[in-house]
Amino acid sequence: EVQLQASGGGVVQAGGSLRVSCAASGFSFDDYAIAWFRQAPGQEREAVAVVSKGDETTYYADTVKGRFTISRDNAKNMVYLEMNSLKPEDTAVYYCHVLRYWGQGTQVTVSS
């Protein structure tokens, strides 16, 4: 059974930093790219960042480029999203995603 367990969310002031993590299990982790998505209230879920299976290639949405960094540790089956210079508009539930599977999400709230 594929499981994606996101953690590390919380409340942070604008300009602050936060790191969310995703623990994966139930599949061959290092064979797949992994993505972080987010969904704010009343909005559609959007892709934030993607990391290739070997951690050699990354993609970022324009809204987070230069502020967020995605990385992975294939030895630990973990994916991370380091978020800096956070803005109130970054407030959302953050989900990790692989294939057709979604984690349960972790809430990130940025106060102004």
DSSP summary, beta strand count = 11
Mean residue pLDDT: 96
Helix content: under 10%
Number of helical segments?
A: 0
Class based on secondary structure composition and strand pairing: mainly beta
Identify the overall geometry. globular
Described by strand count, sense and barrel closure, the largest sheet is: 7 strands, mixed
Question: Uncertain spans, ≥5 residues at pLDDT below 50?
Answer: none
Topology as a string of helices (H) and strands (E): EEEEEEEEEEE
Helices, strands, pairings?
Layout: E1 3-7, E2 10-13, E3 18-25, E4 34-39, E5 46-51, E6 58-60, E7 68-73, E8 78-83, E9 92-98, E10 101-102, E11 106-111
Parallel strand pairs: 2-11
Antiparallel strand pairs: 1-3, 3-8, 4-5, 4-9, 5-6, 7-8, 9-10, 9-11
Describe this structure in words.
By secondary structure, this protein is mainly β. Helices cover 0% and strands 53% of the residues. Strands 2, 4, 5, 6, 9, 10 and 11 form a seven-stranded mixed sheet that branches. Strands 1-3-8-7 form a four-stranded antiparallel sheet, with no helix packed on it. The radius of gyration is 13 Å and the shape is globular. The mean pLDDT is 96.
Short description:
The chain is mainly β. 0% of the residues lie in helices and 53% in strands.
Key terms:
mainly beta, 4-stranded antiparallel beta sheet, 7-stranded mixed beta sheet, 112 residues, single chain
